[in-house]
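User: Some background: our group keeps a shared notebook of sequences we're curious about, and every so often someone picks one and asks for a predicted structure to add to the entry. Today it's my turn. The entry only has the sequence so far, pasted here. Could you supply the structure so I can complete it?
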Amino acid sequence: MKKAANKRSLLLFLLKIALAAAVVWILFSRGQQEILKCLRSFDCRFLLPALFFQIVALLFSAWRWQTLAGVLQVKLSFFEAFSLTMQGNFFSLVIPGGAIGGDVVKMAVIGKRSGSGSCMEGVFTVFMDRVVGMISLFLLTLVLLVPGTGVLMKLRFGTLPCEPGMNMLLIAGIALLSLAGLGASCVIFFHEKLFRLPGVSFLTEKAEHFSKGAVSRMTGAADMYARYWKKLLFLAFLTTFFVHLMAVVPICFLFAGMGVEVPLFTLVLAVVIGNIAGLIPLFPGGIGIRDLVTVTILSAGMVNAGDAKTAQLLSTALMLLLNLAGGIFFVLDPGRGKKELKREQQ
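Assistant: Of course. Here's the predicted structure to add to the notebook entry:
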């Protein structure tokens, strides 16, 4: 049965790669001449700053995780946080689950190195790092939706006619998804009320028994983070600028390399909503669906389709290059043989 399950996982992963490749190929093939023309005239000097700001976002993400680990007294050096962040990005491409799959690998590594005394706390830091990032992303999306309604109402999907009502449903869907994401991200801080619901307390007790106290350790970690809510909000605030808005900067340089001016708000709206689409685990690392959504919104904002596709595909190529570089961190990781990340003395 294990072999059959492994075969199914491999087949599913290959299908996801094929799906992502198909979407990227469709984007390229439907504007091939324009894209090739843009690439021939592209000023390659703009690739360096675009790559630099993508690295800045990764460095901030590593620092954020290190800071969150410190709240639970889990010792994590900045280099180790950066190395594991890069490794997580690499595995988000090569194992099922997309970005979530990369987080699972980080949890497994940090859990192993934290030792039996703080394994659950180490794992929980990865989860909380994702929660802070999601809170920031969904709040930013909600802020952008109202002024972005004019652009989103012009969305067209290929040659299919799009009624205004369909666009309004799409906007409402994005808003509801963002609200649901915020609710799911914050529910952990109200676990006491959740556990009082009929049937939930019974399931919690059973889970506590079978997990040998892991549930209590997790809720205790959540309570610790709740006491530092100001720090979490501050990190979410910084994440808005150094991760989600920082993701706009590289593509700005790529458009500049083509000599194309793009309305800044339209670019921000396209990149942010594209990154939400990239969370869908059907695509490895979000590649394919993120490109399609970003290009579609840019086109609705009156950006030439060929220019939009060229800049977005170049941005994805740089991101893919960085994610693949995470494999080097995995091979050369000096902490692979380390057995424990000792907790700091309280």
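Suggested note for the entry: Confidence is low (pLDDT under 50) at residues 339-346. The first helix runs from residue 2 to 29.
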